[in-house]
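Recap from last week: sequence in, structure out.
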Amino acid sequence: MIGIFDSGYGGLTVMKEVVARLPDYDYLYLGDNARTPYGNRSSETVTQFADEAVRFLFEQGAQLILFACFTASALALPTLQKRFLLDPASPYKDRKILGVLRPLAEYAAQNSGSGRIGVVGTRGTVNSGAFERELNEKKSGLTITRKACPLLVPLIEEQWHTKPEARMILKKYLRTVKEHNVDSLILGCTHYPVMMEDFHRIMGSKTQVINSGAVVAERLEDYLARHPEIESRLSRGKKQRFMTTDCPQRFGEFVKVFGGLEQGSVEQVQL
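Predicted structure tokens:
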């Protein structure tokens, strides 16, 4: 089973793309909606929350966990990979935890012609500098423009993202990024693809707005092909389970909003 973890609903955009590309596996999605958003929390708090989610998913039988949360990928992933996978005493050292940040950085570095790359995301992701580190590791001489967009997640979760007010706020956020003539824009939050059409319209045809879910799905497929020792342990029942730490009814509504996923029951759990 593949476990997909996010602080809330946004990771459903990643799961949608992963299931579309890799439909045969079993999936368990966990959204920590009771404690969302992670974007404005300290790295210590995010690591604590993510640790609890990882333990829960491993106990449920996940052989591989995908952090479909940029904040957790930026602030907690390296620590938890050491804690769960590299510690000889860990009962989970034969499993894997992957993030969404590195695949996007690799893709952007490889596909940017001018070397001018924009990054938008939550405050936690943007201020961590994780994208800059990953991008500069992949390619030297890049010019990176970053912009925190803290209002977008609550607007999307309140389903206000189609309203003129949300589009005006997005346009204001992207003004600085456009001024730097970036040729690639990384959406460093899994909520943002819900507004993909608006990002394309505002940035214009000369800027590639990178679909994070599609890139992550492609790289996950490649990873499994290169690691048959992990792939062979993944169950293939085409089952999708959804769990949340908050209201299951509201979570179920977002499964429908993001589309492309089964619309079955949602379980409420405690971490």
